[in-house]
Structures are given as structure tokens and as C-alpha cells.
């Protein structure tokens, strides 16, 4: 899967993460989408390393893993921003 596909998947994952975790984010929608892109990379890497997922394109499994990574990063981001 190319870098452009990861970015698009990250955009989708970021929007899904925002839908799953509504509320006021310290950075707004743009930061949430960027976290989604990072979450796609983190979730994809972890999924591949753990043998949970193999990413050959846009599949429900790939979107789920990327969204899970985005939710984790969004939770961490909210915790860090709350403390500062």
C-alpha cells in the first residue's frame, strides 16, 4: 500500500475516531485528521508486527486497525493537552 493510500486511510480513520470520540478537542478537526493519519501508520505497523492484519488495500480490517490506532492517539493527545 503506497503512502498516498495510507494518508487517505488516515483521513478516514481520523474522521471515524472523531465520530467515536465526540467532544471538544484541543486542536480541532485538523489535528484529529492528522492524528488519524498517524494512527493509521501506528495501527498498521502494530497490526503487521503482531500478525493481526495485512494491508493490501482498503479493507474493513485495515480501516478498523487504523481507526483503533487513531483513537489511541486521540486519547493520548487529549490526556497530554489536558495536563498542560
UniProtKB/TrEMBL annotation:
This is Putative membrane protein YeaQ/YmgE (Transglycosylase-associated protein family). It is found in: Cell membrane. It is a multi-pass membrane protein. Its main location: membrane. The keyword Transmembrane helix applies. Keywords: Cell membrane, Membrane, Transmembrane, Transmembrane helix. The chain crosses the membrane at residues 29-46, 58-80. It holds the Pfam family Transgly_assoc. PANTHER family: UPF0410 PROTEIN YMGE. GO terms for cellular component: plasma membrane. Belongs to the UPF0410 family. It comes from the Bacteria.
